[in-house]
Amino acid sequence: MKLRTLQDLYVSELKDLYNAEHQLLKALPKMAKAASNPQLAEAFTDHLEETKGQIERLETIFKKLDLSPKGKTCKAMQGLLEEGNEVLEEDAEPSVKDAALIAAAQRIEHYEMAGYGCVRTFARLLGDKQAADLLQETLDEEGTADKKLTDLAESVINEGAVHPVHAK
C-alpha cells in the first residue's frame, strides 16, 4: 500500500493497531496466568475484556470506511510480546516476575497510547468525528490500564520485589 495521503496513512495505522490488538488478545491470558499477585492477574483479565471492545471499535471504523481491517502485521507488537514472553519464561521470584510483567505490559500500553493518539488525530483532521470519538475512548482505556499498572507497581509489587520472600 502506497502512502500518498493522510487517509492512506490513517488506514495503514488502523490496520497495524487492529493486528496489534489481536496479538495482545492471545498474550493477555498468558500474562494473567503468570502473575502471582491476584490484583495483577485481575488487571490483565480486565484488560483482555477491554481489548475485545477495542477490536470491535476498530471494526466499526473499518465498516464505515468499507475496508477490511486485515492485511498488516504489527511488527512492533510482535517485538514487545517476544520480550514479554522472555519474562514469562524466566525463573524468577514471584514478586520479581510480577514487577517484570508490569514493565513489559507498560511498554505495550505506551506503544498503544502512541498509536491511538496518532490515529485519533488523523480521524479529526479527516473530519471523522465518530471515529475520533471511538479512538479517544480506546485511548482513555489504555491510559487507565497504564495507571492501574503503575498503582499496582508502586503500592505492592515493586516493594515485594526489593526483598522477595524466598520459598523453601
Can you give a write-up of this model?
The protein is mainly alpha-helical and 168 residues long. The chain has a single domain (6-160), classed as Ferritin, CATH 1.20.1260.10. The protein has 5 helices and no strands. It has helices spanning 6-34, 38-65, 75-89, 94-125, 129-162. Helix 1 (6-34) packs antiparallel against helix 2 and helix 3 (75-89) packs antiparallel against helix 4. The longest helix is centred in the C-terminal third of the chain and has 34 residues, at 129-162. The relative contact order is 0.15. The mean pLDDT is 94.
Radius of gyration: 17 Å
Classify the secondary structure makeup into a structural class.
mainly alpha
Topology pattern, helix = H, strand = E: HHHHH
CATH superfamily: Ferritin, core subunit, four-helix bundle
- Residues in helices, as a percent range: over 70%
> What is the third-level CATH name, the topology?
Ferritin
CATH architecture: Up-down Bundle
What is the average of the pLDDT values? 94
Oligomer: single chain
Instruction: Give the uncertain stretches in residue-range form.
Output: none
What does the secondary structure layout of this molecule look like, with pairings?
Elements lengths: L5 H29 L3 H28 L9 H15 L4 H32 L3 H34 L6
Helix pairs in contact: 1-2, 1-3, 1-4, 2-5, 3-4, 4-5
